[in-house]
Specification:
With about 170 residues, the protein is an all-alpha fold. It folds into two domains: about 90 residues, Rna Polymerase Sigma Factor, Chain: A; about 70 residues, no CATH class. Helices cover about 65% and strands about 0% of the residues. It is built from ten helices and no strands. Helix 1 packs across helix 6. The longest helix has 24 residues. It is flat and about 50 Å long. The termini are far apart.
């Protein structure tokens, strides 16, 4: 990767989905995670051409985004909702309010160790489908083929609709 802009574009394509999924898990807030990742990539675009690309660009993005999100939460902590989100980050012992409809989703946390794949599964779960349209798009960074790559399904099943004969009795 010679040109820093090309290198950053490639790193963005490769890492944005994973970084966003990780931050959603850590922060518990989709919009905040997406904004923080976008801000971290903007900072990378300013710093990396002069300071060089770090050895682990994805880790750098996640760390920078997490720190920016925490800073934002601290600035906005006057509002109750933001205060609760900051408390969630600082207190690992805090339990979320029980939601019987979503309790079964907790089992996926231990079964699927990959943050991005777990977020994809959660977004496709029927209990969340109406609440989170486009969640799989966020989880994969907008690349449909990654759903197939991560799920192990053949690409035509993901990109081209149902498999031949699916839904026929």
């Amino acid at each position: 990767m010679g040109d820093p802009a090309d290198a950053l574009a490639e790193i963005y394509r490769r890492e944005v989905g994973r970084c966003t999924a990780t931050l959603i898990r850590v922060l518990g807030h989709i919009d905040l995670a997406e904004d923080a990742v976008a801000e971290a990539f903007a900072i990378a675009a300013e710093q990396w051409p002069t300071k060089g690309i770090p050895p682990n660009p994805g880790g750098w993005i996640i760390t920078t985004a997490r720190n920016r999100a925490i800073d934002r939460l601290r600035r906005e902590s006057k509002r109750d909702e933001r205060h609760l989100a900051a408390h969630r980050i600082q207190s690992l012992a805090m339990d979320p309010e029980p939601d019987p409809e979503l309790d079964e989703l907790d089992a996926l946390v231990e079964v699927v160790p990959d943050d991005q794949l777990r977020l994809t599964f959660l977004c496709c779960h029927p209990a969340l489908a109406a609440r989170s349209p486009g969640g799989a798009h966020t989880a994969t960074g907008g690349r449909t083929k990654d759903l197939g790559n991560r799920s192990g399904l053949p690409r035509p099943r993901i990109d081209d609709g149902p498999a031949p004969g699916a839904g026929q009795a």
